[in-house]
TrEMBL record:
Keyword list, A-Z: Phosphoprotein
Gene Ontology molecular function, alphabetical: identical protein binding
Native organism: Noviherbaspirillum denitrificans
Residue ranges constituting the Response regulatory domain according to the UniProt record: 13-132
PROSITE patterns: RESPONSE_REGULATORY
Keyword Phosphoprotein in annotation: yes
Taxonomic lineage: Bacteria, Pseudomonadati, Pseudomonadota, Betaproteobacteria, Burkholderiales
Protein name as annotated: Response regulator receiver protein
Phosphoprotein listed as a keyword: yes
Swiss-Prot/TrEMBL GO biological process terms: phosphorelay signal transduction system
InterPro entries assigned: CheY-like_superfamily, Sig_transdc_resp-reg_receiver, ST_Response_Regulator, TPR-4, TPR-like_helical_dom_sf, TPR_rpt
Sites bearing 4-aspartylphosphate, chain numbering: D63
Amino acid sequence: MATIINQRLAHLRSLVVDDMAAMRQNIRTQLGQLGIPHVDQASTPDEAISYIRRGAYDVIICDYNLNRETNGQQMLEFLRSQNILPASTMFIMVTAETNYDLVASAAEFQPDAYMVKPLTGGKLLERIERLLDKQTALRQIIGRLNLKDVAGAVAECDRAIQAQPKWSLDIMKLKANALLELGKPEEARTVYDAALKLRDDLVWAHYGLARCHFASGQLEEAKAVAQGIIEQNAQYVMAYDMLAKVAEAQGKEQEALDALNRSYEVIPSARRSRMVGDVAYRTGNLEQARTAFDRTLKHTRGSLTAQPSDLLSLAQVHVDAGEPHAALQLLSSAPKHYAESDAFSATQAAVLAQAHIGMGDLELAQHAFERAKSLAGEARADGAALALAKAAFSIGRDDEGASILSKAVRADHENTRLVSLARKVLKDSGKEELAAEVVDGALDQVNAIVAEANALMRKAQFDESLQKLEEALQGMPENTGVLLAAAQLHLLWMSQKGLNLDYVARVNNYLAKLDTLMPGNERVAKMYRFMRETLSRAKK
């Protein structure tokens, strides 16, 4: 039974991840003695991920050295990047490495705490109690952020700093990040500067200043700050990401690729290699793309962290590089469970069609194309649509290819990477002359719909404006630009005419879709705030 001092631990669910049975059992015993009754054990990253997907844990204690394929840091990166790990879960890394702090400080996804072996019950209790204290201090802020009330979170930060000065730096970090989400880089800069006056070695605050510069369009300043961080700490991987973002914004794609390659050298993970592969492919550097995606597959082979898109990306690279036989071999090696996804099977068939053309077999290519088309269904703004369009061009069905590509661009016209890849499909297929008609025409068409809806709203023709966007969403249900416009115009309608519960439901549906399509996007965060303000006024 839990003692009084350990009463807060009595309701915690915990997971211990270690490849050594004796170590797992030792930690489990110590947690039990502290009053934590529910302790699950996992011996591999895959087993741990399965446990976490089945239910939430309050505490995860994970060994850094798990196996040759995936270490604890890489598992944490996967969990956080895939949004599998709830924000409330305390992740404690256990390591025998005395220099693990260098690894943790460099990583994009950091554990809540780390402990150096050997562990004792007293040390575990101290660390868990401290994390629980921190959770309590930040609870109101995190609660606001979970509700998408970013402005409310900023206000809670101001209150918490007064009430909980012990956690002031953690609170300032949350506040500055929230201000950036609200599109207030100058106010965020003030917070980062204040944090640096307290401690000038806070790398996250220096990086925050780079983010402020980038958000303000001060690209060279953002680049200079990122380079300064790297000069002080060459292992800080997010600084390389900033260099890549600046380079892409400036149209310097090779510089972006160089920065991402350097980030992979710091953290040689599947995610980093995938980022390199994506940029290399978009810039036409097929050799680097091949190396990167091949490396990604090796990182994740036989693991739950594997992503089917990696295999498809490498197969497409082989086709583009004139290696159809290698593409066919790779596609035939796909795990059987991948075929359970129509999206995977559609893209696989589309790449197969291209590979068969490369092998000179038009009949097999046409058969694969028809299968891809039947599986793809309605056009979406994704890799399947791009591969399908490319397959259509490869077998001489230019009109179908143009139609598929146009629909894909219309499906998410504000997705700059999709638009760039659509242009690449035309270039690779020898159809660059169609870019104005297919890509630019699709962009103009959607922009015209949004512009017309806005014009109708300005003329106080609310119902006609909303109907225009609703019709657009029938054919483009995941177009982020149209979803944002629809949410905004419905809220404007209610600000003029009062509360409408059907419209509230619609806006919530739009924003839920946007959260999935654009996680962490600043414009979506602003729309949530606009919704709260509008509903508050409408109810008065």
